[in-house]
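During the second half of the funding period, the structural biology subgroup turned its attention to how the target accommodates small molecules. The most pressing case was magnesium ion, which had performed well in the primary screen but for which no bound structure existed. We therefore specified the complex as follows and requested a full 3D prediction, including the ligand pose.
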Amino acid sequence: MYVQKFEDLNKSDIAIAGGKGANLGELTQAGIPVPPGFVVTAETYQKFMEDTGINDKVLDILDKIDINDTKALQAAAEEIKSIIIETPIPDDMIMFIKEAYNQLCQRVGEDDTDVAIRSSATAEDLPEASFAGQQDTFLHVSGDEEVIEYVRKCWASLFEARAIFYREENDFEHSKVLIAVVVQKMAIADKAGVMFTVNPSTGEEIALIEGSWGLGEAVVSGDVTPDNYQVDKANNEVINVTISDKKVMYTNDESGTSIKVNVPENLRMERVLSDEELIELTEMGKRVQAHYGEPMDTEWAFERDNLFLLQARPITTLGDAEPAGDDDASVDGEVLVRGLGASPGIATGLVKIVLDIDELDKIEDGDVMVTTMTTPDMVPAMRRASGIVTDEGGVTCHASIISRELGIPCVVGTGDATKTLKEDTGVTLDGKKGLVFEGITEVSEEAPQAQAVAAEAPILTVTEVKANVSMPEAAERAAATGADGVGLLRTEHLMLTAGIHPGKFIADGREDELIDTIADNVQIVADAFYPKPVWYRTLDAPTDEFITLEGGENEPREHNPMLGWRGIRRELDQPEILKCEFKAIKKLHEKGYTNIGIMIPLSQSPAELVKAKELCAEVGFIPHKDVDFGMMVEIPAAAIIIDEYLKIGVDFVSLGTNDLTQYTLAVDRNNEFVAKHYTEEHPAVMKLIERTIKKCAEAGVTCSICGQAGSVPHIVEKLVKFGITSVSSNADAIAEVRKTVARAEQKIILEAARKRLE
Ligand code: PEP
Ligand code: MG
């Protein structure tokens, strides 16, 4: 479909609507107030690129560039963008997009209504990495011709130099990252800003809100240092209000175009949000977090008294590795400038002042970059910097988000660093306290130790908290959360990244290559977590996903792939692939990675487990003796007859609640039409979960969970009560889940103690 309304999309539709579009659909469906709109789908872009024949031309240009040559990268980006801008769009596409816009106009009762047009890349806003500000947004677009023009500009923005750089750096294949375009009624904000539903640096349960006058652009771009508020989510108490001098705002001129103007003198130091508005925002933040089951980063706006949410995405920086600098060290010396601590750590280096994008080349490894405000184009240079200092911005601006993600100490909102600091002089910056000191200071080591222990004592839980990993490159970050191992390593993604169908390796007589591809990728994960356990899940290959791989043409076209040829049932029909997987894990064990276990997905009968074990033994790798061998419980049948599996013998069981929910409720997890009926908390699903956990406990077998429910704190609390021994969550959720687990465990101990006293 060329276009889809928000009402018809949900968060699983990233492939259709990109991260932003899918989220707006999800929020709309959850009843959160969102200005109405539609999405020009990723498929439309893909069809445009392919049907007009420009795809190959573009890939050719990309093939030849060196992304670290800033000038060549910019020239290639310009060339590609002009190809996209100059190629006519097929008529039927134009017709559908115009029709959707005209329907939106009718719905809001305005001719040529103003819309915001934002690009929404299919790899953007993914939990793995924040791509903040990477693609363009166009405000106040009006009339169907203009809508078409800006949709096309969004398509072209996929090839901004910075976007190309990001993809190369994060190993996203250019041809696999598509772009959808969100077309949304403009909210004409009187005040706007951002809200984190937990403190993004510490994970603490407070709403951290930044707000300023006019459209949200001022806050998101960092043009203004916004007011900063903190609200305790437990009792809605406003615990901190910092009012800033808000110099500029974005507003509309007479023609409706957004322009940057000075904030009227009497409003500059005026508090933007009242206590009532803060509570309204916090309440909305709680609903959004509860709906998604994880802490969220949102953009909001008040249009007169009406609050809207414009954007929501998971916070990408929670539980990150300690930043590069020495976070707890203290620095002495003369303070040259003060600002907000945006990314903790101590950095030293020579000041390089960047007032224009052309000056980026002067940043060399280890310099301190000083600029008015960073933009996405600056990311390659930011990577080289040891520290970043900006004149403008708050703790949620571009510089803050990106430097936290890169682990580079950063001080924002200093007001005048570009004027006060002198080019090529040595400075030391403290990204926690928000200070820049004169000279390259020795960092004092004494006091901090004790402080670190007191403030950051690790949370110990008896229940293990592990990570789900899909991409090897995400393993380091997941391991840095302190996770107790990997409770699910999804092999499908290794194969999808390799790009070649495993069946093709076999058909071409390239078994050894298949074994090496699996072993090399799994080794990266096993290394990152060594000696903690990593459960390698054998291939659960749905036909509709594997069809896209080289050699995937022969995949059967199934009526319902979710109920079809996947998981262990498929692997037993194609034992050569399964054997290659066993051989790959065996090879890694022989290299010393004995921390890897094997987990069998989607089993419906114990005979499958028996057969899988036989095949493993056939390659000279004896289950339970040489390697831990476990299974997932994903089909209700397996949960109901779990005793029979336990009798045969398994080293561990893991609840795959994503599939268990869809099969218990007869709700296809990929089908947006029934998405609202999908809930792990349905009593029938919870009963199967409880039953499995209890039966495993009776048999003394480890029971874990690796479905999405394991990343949802209030469900995890119940699982701990049921007696689950381990929980495997998404990397982003680990800190929060660990806290929930600790609390739930303490509650159990306390209740038991109280009972004894009665
Ligand atoms: C599950 O089904 O819960 C699971 C973890 O497996 P997947 O999401 O990969 O199907
Ligand atoms: Mg599953």
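Two results from this model are relevant to the next phase. Residues 124-134, 319-328, 445-457 have pLDDT under 50 and may be disordered. The two ends are 65 Å apart (CA to CA).
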